[in-house]
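In this section we walk through a basic example: taking a raw amino acid sequence and producing a predicted 3D structure, encoded as C-alpha cells. The instruction is simple. Fold the sequence below.
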Amino acid sequence: MACLCLAGPTGSGKTAAALAFAESLASVQPVEIISVDSALVYRGMDIGTAKPDASERARFPHHLIDLIDASESYSAARFVADARRCVAEITGRGHLPLLVGGTMLYFKALFDGIDAMPASDPAIRRSIDHEAAQLGWPALHARLAAVDPVTAARLPPTDSQRIQRALEVWRISGRPLAEFHQRADNDRIEWPMVSLEPGDRGWLHNRLALRFEQMMADGFLDEVRQLRSRGDLDPSLPSMRCVGYRQAWQLLDEAAAGERLATAALALLHERAVAATRQLAKRQLTWLRSMPFRSVVACDEPDAQHQAVKALHTQWAALRDTPGTA
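The resulting C-alpha cell sequence is shown next.
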C-alpha cells in the first residue's frame, strides 16, 4: 500500500503543509488525510487540540478525527487497526493516503506493530492514583524503572498518564509495556516520512506561546468549562489529560465556583500550559530522532512549507516509481 507520512512536534506547521501538498497534487492524484493525533479523536475538544476547522476539513477528506466521546479511551492498538483500514480504503479508491500528526507512539506502533495490550482496569488505576497521591509520581516512576526500565527511560518522572498506564499494564499482565511495542524486524514497515523539526527550539517555543494565546482568545477556557459542566468527566480521563486541558481543569478547580478568573490566574494558566506544551514538543522530537529514515525539513525556515511540499513530492515520485505501490 502506498502512502506518505508527515510528522513533527506540536506547532510545527503540519496541517498547513499537508493542505498545501494535497492542493498541489489535486489535479494528479486526490489526497486524503489520516490524523495521527491522540487528541483529535475526541469530539467536543476542538480549540485546545488545534483541530483542523470545518473549512480545512472540507477541502480534503480527513479521517480519524472526532471518533469518540471525551469519556472514552483510544489506544495505539486501535489506531493501528483504524489507520490500516483507512489506508487500504483510500488506496482502493486510487487516492493517496497522507498520515499527518505528532503522536509518535502511534507512528511507531504503525511501523513496528504492536501486540494487543490489556484493557484498562479502573480498580487498578484508582489504586495507582492513590499511591501517587501519597508518594508522588517520581516515586512511582522509580517503581516503573524497576520492572520496565525501557519505558521508564523515555518518560519524565512527572508524566503521570504514561507512568500510570505502564504500571497498569505491568500489574495486569506481568509484562513490561515495552514488550508490547516490539515486533519482528521482518514485519517492520517504513513508509516514507517527512518531518518538520525546528533548527532553533526558541522559535518553536515562541510559536507555542502565541498559539496558546490565540486559543484563549478563541474561547478555550469556555470549551473546558463546557466539558466540566457535563458531570461525567474528570481529570483522570485520557481526554482531560491532554496538554492544555489538564492545566485549565486544574486552574478551574483552584478557583472558587463561579468566580471570574483574575488576570494573575490566567497568566498562571498560560505559564503552565505553555510549559507543558514545550515538554510535549521535546518528547516528540526525541521520538523522531529514533526514526532515522525520516526526511527532515527545518520548520523554522521562511520557506518551510514550500520545502515540506517539495520533500513530499519527492517521496510521492519515489512511490510512483516503485513497482506494486502506485
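Looking at the output, two observations stand out. Residues 80 and 180 are 13 Å apart (CA to CA). Residues 263-289 form the longest helix (27 residues). In the next section we compare this with other chains.
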